[in-house]
Amino acid sequence: MKKTNTVIFQIDPLEKLNHKTDSSIFLIKEALKSGVDVWISSSSSLTFFDKQAFVYAYRILDVDLSISQPMRVSIKDFMFFFIRQDPPFDINYLTNCYILELHQRNNKSPFFINNPSAIKNFTEKIFPFYFQDLTPRTYLTSNPLEFKKILKKFKIAVIKKLYNKGGEDVYKVSLDDSKSLDTFKKCSSNFSEALIVQEYMDEVIFGDKRIILVDGIPQGAVNRVPRRGEFKANLHLGAKADRTELTSKEKQICNSLENTLKKNKLFLVGIDVINEKLTEINVTSPTGLVQISRLEKKNLATIIWKKLFKKFFP
Q1: In CA terms, which of 69, 104, 211, 308 is 20 to 30 Å from 243?
Q2: Under CATH, what is the fold of the domain 3-115?
Q3: Which CATH class is domain 137-200?
């Protein structure tokens, strides 16, 4: 195996992915077109022994994504390793990051996209607290007394579980709704799990921008407009994908993140911005690459691969 031209994707099963819109599939197919030797594996096949991590991996044989029989391989034999399985960011996800971090500590390769230590330390809904001057007013709490005070202040708020994905366990609550505390109680597992409690922004009806940053630099964006009467702007929930440009304020947000992303080797990141305010920083498996490429008439997967190879072959 030629280390200089190999990549392994740790992803969810191929049959569970939408081959037309999934960002991982998009990256895999572009790699194959460029002559990269592509393999896939799952986090459940990971083993750590003798200072290195091993997986049972499948080689991708063609652009139709035919696969070989599984082979036991050391991940040190690959140049790149994409951590692309979807959350929830549960104990299994965390353990996966620990194993890959141990491997990274003892080996020079592969280069991880993204750095498992940073994925472990900077989860997407907590990460924005490092940049509170860029975010809407946001609390992190499981305390019902605090929640009542916050709701009295905001009148309308959005509550979110910390470690799910794609709009799961995200609710809009209001001071006028007598069931708001019940919703908070249920979402927080009887006031035992801290939640995001964020001021609701009416401007979400005009869109929630997903901005893709590659090595700290914005490379494209899509404005996700919720369905009428909805506040969630996730594309898989029916939001409309519109072409957009970054405002000067949004460019400033990206600039403010650049050094932190580079320092922590967070190479491929998706940030969410509503009304020019940062709401989430996705470091696990950011999506939207296909939609942005179509809208902006450029291939984001090509850009990502070129920048990756440029880092190693400047």
Answers
A1: 308
A2: Rossmann fold (3.40.50)
A3: alpha beta
What superfamily does domain 204-303 belong to in CATH?
Answer: ATP-grasp fold, B domain (3.30.470.20)
Residue type, 95: T
Could you write out the DSSP letters of every residue in 135-176?
Answer: S-SEEEE--HHHHHHHHHHHSEEEEE-SS--TTTTEEEEETT
SS3 193: coil
DSSP for 32-87 reads: HHTT-EEEEE-GGG-EEETTEEEEEEEEB-STT--B---EEEEGGG-SEEEE-PPP
Q: What is the pLDDT of residues 158-214, one digit of tens each?
A: 999 999 887 789 999 999 999 999 999 999 999 999 999 999 999 999 999 999 999
C-alpha distances in Å from residue 259, one per residue of 25, 156, 206, 307: 29, 34, 30, 17
Place of tokens 């996800």: 93
